[in-house]
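Lab notebook: predicted structure, single chain.

Context: the supervisor wants predicted structures on file for every construct in the current expression panel, including those that have not yet been purified. This is the next one on the list. No modifications to the sequence; it matches the entry in the shared construct table.
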Amino acid sequence: MTSSTQIFIIAGVVFVFIQGAVLYMGLGKYKVKAPKKNEESFEVAIRTKIPRTSQAFGAEISWTIGPPSYGSYSNLQRWVLIRPDDVDAAPEGSTYPDAEVLVVGQQWWWEYHYYLDGIEGADQPDLVTANELVIPVNQDIRIYTTSRDVIHSFWIPRLNGKKDAVPGRTTPWVIQSNEVGRFAGQCTEFCGLSHAYMRMYTIALPHEEFSTWVDNQIKVRNPLTEDDPNYEGEQLFITNCARCHAINGVTEREMNGETVADSMAMYGNIEEFRNHSDGTLSQGKYTGAANLTSGAAPNLTHFASRSSYAGSFFELYPNAQEIAEGGGSLRPITK
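Prediction complete. Output recorded below exactly as produced.
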């Protein structure tokens, strides 16, 4: 039984007790009784002997029973429809039916670790990207939210409800889109001075295009040769930007006493939470990923494949929304 189910049961018991007491007090114990034979009329008793602020009995019944009934219905509906452990089977034709994503919040951007065959038993993610969560359309995707620093809250209004990202814990959630499109989101937990700029997008693609996107994201970029016109720019990036950013196959860092090119291995061994049934993880093993710098910034291996940058605050392409929804001649998210 999940913690959300336990809370629902406890809240339900409390609700029934309180509403039962309200109905008993309002309609039973203190109900005005009709006069006996030879006594003055019921209407006279109400007007003259029993002080009341209202005689709208029907209205009183409505506002006593109506709101709780509606609240019960809406909460039950929400609990049934978006339970975190309710993941429908992937549709026929899905290339990655077991894909799961670890969503890592940090000041002030989001990082996504994709496990294409599920998190259980995986030593490292298959790919890591930032700010734009790309998913296949019409497929439930299990996600786990956590944080590298303070509490954040992940929310894509058109696709699912809010879910806090808490340091030292992972919280299961599900995201799904019934249509191809680009859906905006926002961190909804105050997390510092740039909280208002901590945005994100979820992009839902047809299954074939999602597979193409995955194939392109997994590719490692080869370093440029000295005769390439972009070589000096790459060296400038390595000298300055690589202190925080990474380009798989190009930038380097120390790992286990050796200098190696950046790859998905630097994100390995930080998802220890999968061995904890209660969702907790070892903060000592997670701390920003031991192999990453303390000021870790988005992995920029496939920067041009995103439609936004700087915490999704700026659009990378002037027609990003149109491109992501398929109306343009280019889909940067699959190139």
